[in-house]
Amino acid sequence: MAKRRAPYSRPAAATAVAAGHGPIAVRRFVANSGFLAFTQALIALNAIALGLEAVTSFGEAFGSLFDLLFAASTVWFVAEIALRLVAHGKPIAGFFRDGWNTFDTVIVVLSLLPLAGGIAIVARLLRLLRLLRLVSGSSLLRDFALGRLPVGAHVLAGSLILALSLYAFSLAGFHLAGGLLAEAAAWADLPSALSSTAAWSVMASPPSLPAEGPAGVAWLVVLGVAHVAWLGLLLRGLFGARKSA
What we know:
Blueprint: H1 12-15, H2 24-31, H3 33-53, H4 56-88, H5 99-110, H6 120-127, H7 133-136, H8 139-146, H9 151-176, H10 190-202, H11 214-244
Helix pairs in contact: 2-4, 3-4, 4-5, 8-9, 9-10, 9-11
């Protein structure tokens, strides 16, 4: 007797359904690994482009291409949040009970500020918030924030978070100083801005602030708050891991 072939089963990613009460077709689309991977890849591409934009040779040559990427990314991120809301269904308030959903939505909403007039620099700085979505999209980095990792993984995730923070503050300093037109050499490009941010982080012969007046002071204060918050999360995770060991 011929052996009966097992019925074909689709990969789990193809049959996964996002939690919620919305249309099942939308829930399947949102839960699909391709949807998730594309969004994360686009966030990572934005992170790379933001850095290249701050390198003189790339920023001058590909500035318009970067602007096109950022604009197209904004469209996708708005559509992504909208699809996730539809997949969740009513009541919408339930969607925002998940802190990471609220986190992603706030970042996307802030990125919609117009890139024109006197708030252009504000919009560029808010665009840097997209870097934080690397945290919400990574289970490792989310678990660092929640203190759920063993010691080794916690230290690794903490190191990645610190590197991401320094990268974001360096780019913020670069834009506050005037971008590629910055007069201060310490903030004129990404390598210089990274070095200056590191110097301010440890107060080791730091250069001038990236901007004069309240803007420069605000950058320094937020940098200090970010470092204190990071240290608190690192110690909390280490203490919790040791206590449960």
